[in-house]
Amino acid sequence: MGEWMRVVYFPLIFVLFLPIVSTAVYKLVHDEIESIGGGNFSRHEIITNTSFRVIAIPMKGDIDLYLSYSNKNVSFDLANHNASSSTCGMDYLDVPSASSFHPRPTFLGIYGHPFHEVSKYRLIVVKRMVEEHEKEGLEYDWEDSPIELIEMIDEGRSERSGSFLSDFFSDHLWNILEIMFTILLEF
Q: What start and end residues bound the annotated signal peptide (predicted)?
């Protein structure tokens, strides 16, 4: 009976957990409602070697995003940023994985448009889980649009599903599987 359980249950558990593991494409790093005064900058330092996407959704007023690979005082001056997004709506920036061309840390500046006394916005940072081709230095296009990512985040918050693994699964899934396999092997 013990050998039968090992032969049947080990592959069964692996197959049941495989879809959960394989959907871990993105990881939510930051999701907060923030505000900034008109004409002011808020600056963040982002440290991750994987590629990531910054999404800013205005709730009141207007903000712009500026990104620098070297300047902590990132601003709208052309000499002080490497990338920007300055629309009158949702702004986002895709940042490739770390390399000699894209060193870390990365500095993000959020500018409150001076036409508004205060701007309120939702700031989301999503990092991509490391893929084999990214380890080799090749870049990968984001499969999901910013709006699709936001929908997955919002659904995941209430349903704990989608392409985002909960912190529990991302931190402890393999430990749980290892314990289960050990128990099965002892039968």
A: 1-23
